[in-house]
Amino acid sequence: MAAGSAAVTVTGVSAGSAHAAVPASPGVSFTNPIAEQRADPHIWKHTDGYYYFTATVPAYDRIVLRRATTIQGLSSATETTLWTKHASGEMGAHIWAPEIHFIDGKWYIHFAAGEAHDIWKIRPYVLECGAANPLTGTWREKGRIALPLDTFSLDATTFVVGGVRYLSWAQNDPAVGSGTNLYLARMSNPWTISGAPVRISTPTAPWETAGHRVNEGPAVIQRGGKVFMTFSASATDANYCMGLLTASASADLLSASSWSKTANPVLRSNDATGQYGPGHNSFTFSEDGKSDIVVYHDRDYKNISGDPLNDPNRRTRVQKLYWKSDGTPDFGIPVADGVTPRRLSSYNYPDRFVRHWEYRARIEADVSPLADSQFRTVTGLAGGGTVSLESANFPGYFLRHKNFEVRVEPDDGTARFRSDASFHARAGLADSAGVSYESSGFPGRYLRHYDYLLHVQALSTATDRADATFHTR
Which end of the chain is more exposed for a tag (fewer CB within 10 A), N or C? Predict the structure, then answer.
């Protein structure tokens, strides 16, 4: 493995002018985890230039908030306690899954809470703040969201489609069976639903029923006339995972038949990256507004002693959300801790990405699985200001050239491997907004594609330089 991560320092002078557009969604990088011991994370990007971050704390006794001008800055931002559980009665236990929203000029936090002497009598509640700065303003209790069915209910989220505000939440219905289902209703204001709710998802598949029958933690993102609702399933251990519901934005969202569910999870535990139980996500945007970011929690170990709800070590993490050519989201895998990976698209074939296929490196469109085309830029194995490109789904494997053909292979600890897997990141030879990779051991030879396969070659023509130029995504 590499000794650490490296910010890419691009040097050199572009040998040509840009002809391909810089990607609409350029690469972004974060260092995970964003916050230790913070579960059910919710990040709101506000118009005041700040990101606001709240999450469940392990003591289940309060609601906290922090803010920063960058997502990464939330890691070190001061945390403020906004509200503390009641000593008795309602809202006296199990303070779970707060979400912060700005609605009609005011701040609202939706959260779940139990009763002090009946901790599993969990229901959804709302707080309101009229101040511009929710960290210093006064928060007032708006009370419980009244639901027609007075049973275990939690994880309320709110969103707007077609000018209509909705509330979605998880709830148990004894007539349906054990566990929780997902429900949806219109809202007349941020703490009141109107009309009859509809059940839009019930846990039935094996990946939804491992340990417990669970559909919970809904979160919504919209794109291309579609409404995508993620949700979490199964017990809160390594079985915890995320599924996806999809509906047309023009459909009747209060008709269960408008929603379709994925046959398999869209994000689940990954032994290779050491991430377990990813789930209860939210969505936000990158600082430049050009990339969608998925926010979620997981653990960095698989085995838990006792009830997972008593294990405090769920951590908040972020990574870029990608979109397939058919307009559906691609979550990939929960990436390894540390610097998040990025993708490299070809300058002259912008729909094709560097990927490995049976360990041979090539460029290809519509890469599946996504992680085959994700690489972490780390400190060069050969040192000397170089970088190395580590596979996202095969940590410890790097792009290296062997007889000038580029493959993904594990670091064998030799000087030859370190040299062959190290590159100088240069300004893109065909577009200075891109990047080109010059071989550390063979100056003048660059990583380039030829007949869609990657090689390390000397360059002489404009086509060569274009083939050796990439954009980060």
Answer: N
Give the integer Cα–Cα distance in Å for 46 and 44: 6
Is residue 100 classed as helix, strand or coil in its secondary structure? Answer: strand
- Percent of residues, the chain, with pLDDT higher than 70: 96
d(C-alpha 114, C-alpha 144), whole Å? 11
Residue 273 gets which letter from DSSP? T
DSSP letter string, 179-229: SBEEEEEEEEETTEEEEEEEEEE---SGGGSSSS-BEEEEEEEEETTEEEE
Let me know if 79 is a catalytic residue: no
Reading phi first (left if > 0) and then psi (alpha if -120 to 50, else beta), residue 465 is in alpha
Q: Over range 356-381, report the average pLDDT.
A: 98
464 is catalytic: no
**Interior angle at CA 418, CA 416 and CA 422, nearest 5:** 120
Q: Which residues pair with 321 in a beta bridge?
A: 292
Domains in the chain: ranges and CATH: 34-336 (2.115.10.20), 344-472 (2.80.10.50)
The upper half-sphere exposure of residue 354, i.e. CA atoms within 13 Å in the direction of its Cβ, equals 35
pLDDT category, 57, cuts 50, 70, 90? very high
Helix (H/G/I), strand (E/B), else coil: 468:
coil
Identified catalytic residue from 208, 216, 372, 464: 216
pLDDT for residue 309: 95
Amino acid code (one letter) for 307:
D
126 and 140 in contact (C-beta within 8 Å)?
A: no
Q: Count Cα neighbours of 367 within 13 Å in the Cβ-side half-sphere.
A: 24
Catalytic residue among 40, 155, 372, 409: 40
Please give the full DSSP string across 322-357, using - where no structure is assigned: EE-TTS-EE----PPSEEPPB-EEESSSTT-EEEEE
State whether residue 132 is helix, strand or coil. Answer: coil
Q: Which pair of tokens denotes residue 438?
A: 């010059």
